[in-house]
Amino acid sequence: GIQVEQSPPDLILQEGANSTLRCNFSDSVNNLQWFHQNPWGQLINLFYIPSGTKQNGRLSATTVATERYSLLYISSSQTTDSGVYFCAVELLRSNTGKLIFGQGTTLQVKP
Amino acid sequence: KAGVTQTPRYLIKTRGQQVTLSCSPISGHRSVSWYQQTPGQGLQFLFEYFSETQRNKGNFPGRFSGRQFSNSRSEMNVSTLELGDSALYLCASSLQDGTGELFFGEGSRLTVL
Questions:
Q1: Which chain B residues contact residue A89 at CB under 8 A?
Q2: Of A48, A90, A101, which has the smallest distance from its Cβ to B43's Cβ?
Q3: Per-residue exposure over B44-64, b if at least 16 CB sit within 10 Å of its own CB, e if not
Q4: What is the edge-to-edge ordering of all strands in the sheet holding A52-56?
Q5: Separation of alpha carbons A104 and B43, rounded Å
Q6: B82 touching A (Cβ < 8 Å)
Q7: B contacts of A30 (beta carbons < 8 Å)
Q8: B12-48: pLDDT as tens digits
């Protein structure tokens, strides 16, 4: 089956630093989403980005579908950015809402 | 616009019991999918429903079942609970027929003793 690999698995930053999270996937996809899991467990949508580049405030994401990877950029990190970031993909032609999740990147931002 | 609502948020059961979890999707969304999250296995797909039909099922035993009603609300049931069923169960809804952006609820945290 499709493999979704996220790196790094853990990341510790000082407040104000920038970071890049990576997601590699092994097959063609028609859906790619980035989530931030809050301390209560809810997955908060960050980006729906099967291809191209999007920006939302201090966060931006780029997906290069032909090369099967996506990047999530966090600039000027804040302590509230701490948590687990997940990349999830849906196989091309699946059309059934089945997302395959990576194992996540755990981010800790220190004041 | 209300988000995805899951009930109950927390529950404790004992081995051998059964449990039913409920999910109300975002208004207008017709696709509902369920995921299980555990520390060891991460987030895994359980099943997906669209227009009351199960279109896809993950690699889980038959003790895990679900259904969707005509108003798109969904329930999942786990029978004969095992300790390993302790997990966060997340429901997601989507506007389109399974493709497109998924929105998740806050989850139901199940503890099996």
A1: none
A2: A101
A3: bbbbbbbeeeebbbeebeeeb
A4: A4-7, A19-25, A69-74, A59-64, A52-56
A5: 10
A6: no
A7: 99
A8: 999 999 999 999 999 999 999 999 999 999 999 999 9
